[in-house]
Specification:
The chain is an alpha/beta fold. The protein folds into two domains: 119 residues, 3-Layer(aba) Sandwich (Rossmann fold); 97 residues, Arc Repressor Mutant, subunit A, CATH 1.10.10.10. The protein is 43% helix and 23% strand. It is built from eight helices and twelve strands. The chain has a five-stranded parallel β-sheet with strand order 2-1-3-4-5, with helices on both faces. Helix 1 crosses helix 5, helix 6 packs across helix 8 and helix 7 crosses helix 8. It is elongated, with a radius of gyration of 18 Å. It starts with a strand and ends in a 5-residue tail after the last strand.
């Protein structure tokens, strides 16, 4: 994790300075941008390992920037904002944020969360998983469903993909909701109903691709991904 490059997209110089000092103290490299266009340019050109992204910016807002980043790839993103409402958090997570920190924040916490997000992203790099009709490639961030002669590539959010990979690594096991929160969603910012929402959307996408029953719910417990569409 040493020398990982962190892109800070934030228009308040004092906050940028604080984050830069704390990240560099932990041997991260940093680069900053005070507006969305510059931030996206830095992302394209420098390919940072992680992005710390403010929501309120002078041109594009953080949600627009996050959506643009997700169209390009899977760079981990931590949102840092003064907006503390649960709906704002859920919107950021739905678009694909890896974590969400509310101002005023402890910079040590931001750095700790950055380390956790990077560990999670790097630990997710593993072999291609073949499970029933599913072929999951964690490195390429792709899921292909093959049913008969049909071959469909699923379009999943980052959280949906993390949930699918986590369950696919232990097929037929029932995962409790709390366990899925801890393993796949940002620390401290998710609850059981958030998992239910992501799973519901994931199940709908699988069903639309022809996989009706491979992802199932166990009443009062959680969810299981079975080895075959039984």
């Amino acid at each position: 994790m040493n020398n990982a490059l962190v892109l800070i997209i934030e228009d308040e110089p004092d906050i940028v300075d604080i984050l830069r000092r704390y990240f560099e103290r932990e041997e991260f490299r940093t680069v900053s941008a005070s507006d969305g266009d510059t931030g996206l340019s830095h992302h394209m050109r420098l390919k940072p390992d992680l992005i710390v992204l403010d929501v309120k910016l002078p041109d594009l807002d953080g949600y627009e920037i996050l959506a643009n980043i997700r169209q390009r790839g899977n760079t981990p993103v931590i949102m840092v904002t003064a907006l503390a409402d649960d709906l704002d958090k859920l919107q950021a997570l739905r678009i694909g944020a890896d974590d969400y920190v509310v101002k005023p924040f402890n910079p040590l916490e931001v750095v700790a969360r950055a380390k956790a997000v990077l560990r999670r992203a790097r630990n997710g790099r593993t072999r291609v998983i073949r499970l029933g009709a599913l072929t999951i490639d964690p490195d390429a961030h792709t899921v292909v469903v093959e049913t008969g002669t049909a071959r469909n590539k699923l379009s999943l959010t980052r959280t949906e993909f993390r949930l699918l990979v986590h369950m696919a690594q232990s097929p037929n096991r029932v995962f409790e909701r709390g366990e899925l929160v801890d393993a796949c969603l940002p620390e401290g910012d998710a609850v059981d109903r958030t998992v239910d929402s992501h799973i519901s959307k994931l199940r709908r996408k699988l069903a639309e691709a022809g996989v009706e029953r491979q992802l199932s719910g166990v009443r009062g417990v959680g969810y299981s991904l079975v080895d075959g569409d039984e």
